[in-house]
């Protein structure tokens, strides 16, 4: 499930509005909703979602990631019940869900670069294909990008630290690439 226009559903306390004023030739404008691009917006929105679903998260059938809600259940009946519980939390506070972006009753899904199937987690093969098509890193920045991407999947690679130690050495200041 995906919250519709996630950050824009999140209002501000009045004393915070003045911090996001925009002054231009047409006047002074204030955001009344959280705009995209503010440094701490994702953390604030995540905290808001965790507060809303404080009772549901410990039960273990829900995962929240910013404006995405992943619900998993062993039976269709439980799945429908959990969806209803999420909806019952969203409705009173006017938190809107984008039905166009929702997928219900899926056996597997792609989330955050992973393929989730039941209780197993695998690397999204589209991400692997994208890396294989990239040229070999030619400088420190490109190597850092590659290592950052690879590190995201380190739990899927046995002896990752050992395998990448020589690549990390290439990122030090004294090394000529």
TrEMBL record:
Signal peptide start-end: none
User: What are the TM regions of this chain, as residue ranges?
Assistant: none
Q: Which Pfam families match?
A: RVT_1 (PF00078)
The UniProt entry, under Gene3D superfamilies, shows: 3.30.70.270, HIV Type 1 Reverse Transcriptase, subunit A, domain 1
Residue ranges constituting the Reverse transcriptase domain according to the UniProt record? 1-116
InterPro entries, per database record: DNA/RNA_pol_sf, Rev_trsase/Diguanyl_cyclase, RT_dom, Viral_Replic_Matur_Polypro
Q: What is this protein called?
A: Reverse transcriptase domain-containing protein
